[in-house]
Amino acid sequence: MGTKAGIVVASAVVAGSLAASMIVFNTRPVASPQTAAQVPSCAATPGAFVNFLVKKPPQPLPVGPFFDAGGAERRFSDYRERGLVVNFWATWCAPCVKEMPDLDRLNALLKAEGIEVLSLSSDREGAAVVERFYRRIGIKTLPILLDRMGALGREMKVAGLPTTILADRQGREVARIVGAAAWDSDKVVETIRRCLGGPSTPASRA
């Protein structure tokens, strides 16, 4: 065999080997991108809540207003890029009254992390009754906010008090809690951080 013929045969062998290795490589399974179902979602820590309802898919918050103590309109869009714990309550609702100090401590704990508690009162007497109540039981961090005539609650299909909406930083409802909860407990704080963003380490009870 001449030198030139030997080179041709050797080249063919090399090309065949490369082709075979490419075929083997191309038959290997390729990892697919992470699906939406595999992405961690909002879920309650076991034992944190009695009635925890995940919203699938998350729903945009309504644009309807609520009101501050001075009567100015506020909207959820005012809290852009913040996680929200939106609590619908009233001073005449016994379970609501019981959990307000816990919500106050939760707000103090998480506000610096970009998670804020909005307590929307349905009291028809307005800001004055809420202010007296806050002063009487020592609420320090919760804003005085009003859901006049329960209009926003009806729009959000709130069936009873207390009801609390968890809204993510994109302005969407991701879960709701029907009834009262121990809002400053480790399990609850861990759940809120998981759903709304924040450190994963549970906080100590205040």
Explain briefly what this protein structure is:
With 206 residues, the chain is an alpha+beta fold. The protein contains five helices and eight strands; from the N terminus they run αββββαβαβαββα. It has two domains: 1-30; 45-196, Glutaredoxin.
- By helix and strand content, what is the structural category? alpha+beta
Number of helices: 5
Q: How are the strands of the largest sheet arranged?
A: 1-8-7-4-5-6-2-3
Distance between the termini: 89 Å
The CATH fourth-level homologous superfamily of the largest domain: Glutaredoxin
For the record, the CATH class of the largest domain is Alpha Beta
How many structural domains are formed by the residues?
Answer: 2
Strand content: 15-25%
Low-confidence stretches: 3-39, 200-206
- CATH names the topology of the largest domain as Glutaredoxin
Shape estimate: globular
- Biggest sheet overview: 8 strands, mixed
Radius of gyration, whole Å = 28 Å
CATH architecture of the largest domain: 3-Layer(aba) Sandwich
The average pLDDT is 83
Helix and strand element order:
HEEEEHEHEHEEH
Residues in helix, %: 25-40%
Number of beta-strand segments: 8
Give the arrangement of secondary structure elements:
Blueprint: H1 3-26, E1 52-60, E2 66-68, E3 73-74, E4 83-89, H2 94-110, E5 115-121, H3 127-137, E6 145-146, H4 151-155, E7 163-167, E8 172-178, H5 186-196
Parallel strand pairs: 4-5, 5-6
Antiparallel strand pairs: 1-8, 2-3, 2-6, 4-7, 7-8
